[in-house]
Design a protein that fits this description.
By secondary structure, the protein is of the alpha/beta class. 42% of the residues lie in helices and 14% in strands. The chain contains 17 helices and 14 strands. It has a six-stranded parallel sheet, sandwiched between helices. Strands 11-10-9-12-13-14 form a six-stranded parallel sheet. A two-stranded parallel sheet has the order 7-8. Helix 1 packs across helix 3 and helix 9 crosses helix 11. The radius of gyration is 23 Å and the shape is globular. It starts with a strand and ends in a 6-residue tail after the last strand. The relative contact order is 0.09. The structure holds nicotinamide-adenine-dinucleotide (NAD). The site of nicotinamide-adenine-dinucleotide has 26 residues, from helix 1 and helix 5.
Length: 434
């Protein structure tokens, strides 16, 4: 099939590449000329495990190409995917200006039937708005379907190639048939394709992310209780996770959720609920708990140093909002850095993939190290903000030699408390006895 993907960021590039990998002819469109030039030259623009190999293979096989010129691709494709940003707008509701802007542009460009597929995360009712924006200028036949994306950065290729489910909100048989044909190679093992009305499909995405955010905030509150009551959140997590109704995954406490999705999607669903005259109490609490948890590690650091961080030097391992990505949007590490700098401390950071993104944002406010061990040289303590695999079994002797004092503040509970204590560390983590 011939497919266009408009918006070539984390979702668009993975979507376009994976559709090309299953034999489709894909053209990815973006307004960012620098990004398109790089991609067209075979340089990948995001770090996503496994993506580069597929990206290069499909460019070579001429199934994947990149352009800034939407007008030039519309006639040659059957389906147009929108993978555009939906950032928080005024008051936190999803800003639809990118999605509706492109929809209006498409209305001026269409001259025959096209299926417009919305992959961006959008509030209920957006498919209607997209339809109306196109229909302003185009009176011919077209369909709009909602096809929310559930990929997780860091494992996006696997998630896309073998999705737990594909959700399709559609209003026509023609749209359903095209979508079923396109997705057939991805669901060969029987993973469900859930066909539904478009409003339910749009809401499904927000409900999914909000539910997952709720699990994290719940466990962060349990961790707060553990700290006050002398319990161990790791034990409680295992204790509840073995109940099949609860499940083992997504029960880790830490320094709050971040990234480009959970914070904005929780906020947007709260706003959508408000607009529908419904007070979504649980989600408001989820958001408030998360905002507080992002400061929790710094509170512990301040307590440890009796409130005076002036002149202290910290080594920070991890900047990305989670491992296996270079994405730093809403990363808890950035909140930690900001607070430490305000308190008069200095930070030397290391992250395997996210340092250039942070450098672009913070410049020389912090120092960047070439390795996780170089970051430690002369530091008063080590802080851990992202659970990259390479941080999980470090050389503790090396850490002990490099730090001025053997102190670790761990926002991701990577190590055994007893083991660290037996090696002479003051080890401060989340929700566990010190
Ligand atoms: N990142 C994720 O993990 C993830 C997962 C599921 C769903 N989503 C949703 O998918 C959507 C896209 O997210 P993302 O993380 O890929 O965003 P992104 O910011 O990485 O990418 C968006 C791209 O759209 C481009 N763009 C903006 N305006 C454009 C226009 N008029 N024409 C063409 N291109 C344009 C930008 O230049 C950018 O490259 C959002 O709604 C997001 O909530 C994201």
């Amino acid at each position: 099939m011939r497919v266009a993907v408009v918006g070539t960021g984390y979702v668009g590039l993975v979507t376009g590449t994976c559709f090309a990998e299953t034999g489709n002819k894909v053209v990815c469109v973006d307004i960012d000329q620098t990004k398109v030039d790089k991609l067209a030259a075979g340089q990948i623009t995001i770090y996503e495990p496994g993506l580069e190999k597929l990206f290069l293979r499909n460019i070579k096989e001429e199934r994947l190409r990149f352009t800034t010129d939407l007008a030039s691709v519309v006639d040659e494709v059957e389906m147009i995917f929108l993978a555009l940003p939906t950032p928080p707008g005024a008051g936190g509701a999803a800003d639809l200006k990118y999605v509706l802007g492109v929809a209006e542009e498409l209305g001026k460009l269409l001259s025959s039937y096209k299926l417009i597929v919305n992959k961006s995360t959008v509030p209920v009712g957006t498919a209607d708005k997209v339809r109306a924006a196109i229909a302003k200028n185009y009176k011919g036949e077209f369909d709009v379907v909602s096809n929310p994306e559930f990929l997780r950065e860091g494992v996006a290729v696997d998630d896309f190639m073998k999705p737990d489910r594909v959700v399709i909100g559609r209003n026509s048989v023609r749209a359903r048939n095209l979508m079923s044909e396109l997705y057939a190679p991805f669901v060969r093992q029987g993973n469900p394709v859930l066909l539904m009305d478009e409003r339910s499909s749009e809401l499904t995405k927000y409900a999914a992310n909000s539910f997952l955010a709720m699990k994290i905030s719940f466990m962060n509150e349990i961790a707060q209780l553990c700290e006050r009551m002398g319990a161990d959140v790791d034990m409680v997590r295992r204790g509840i996770g073995s109940d099949e109704r609860i499940g083992k995954r997504f029960l880790f406490s830490g320094i709050g959720y971040g990234g480009s999705c959970f914070p904005k999607d929780v906020q947007a669903l709260i706003k959508s609920a408000d607009a529908a005259d419904y007070d979504f109490k649980i989600l408001k609490a989820v958001e408030a708990v998360n905002a507080k948890q992002k400061h929790h590690l710094v509170e512990k650091i301040k307590t440890h140093y009796q409130g005076d961080l002036r002149g202290k030097q910290f080594a920070l391992w991890g900047l990305a909002f989670k491992p296996n990505t270079d994405d730093i949007r809403e990363a808890p590490a950035l909140v930690i850095i900001d607070e430490l700098l305000k308190e008069g401390a200095s930070v030397t950071a290391y992250d395997p993939e996210a340092m250039s993104a942070v450098h672009a944002q913070l410049g020389t406010k912090i120092t960047f190290a070439q390795s996780q061990y170089q970051a430690l040289e002369g530091a008063d303590a080590l802080l851990i903000a992202t659970e990259w695999s390479e941080f999980r079994t470090p050389d503790f002797e090396h850490i002990g030699r490099a730090l001025t004092t053997k102190v670790i503040f761990d926002g991701r509970n990577l190590f055994e408390v007893a083991k660290l204590q037996s090696m002479g560390y003051q080890y401060i983590s989340i929700g566990r006895p010190q």
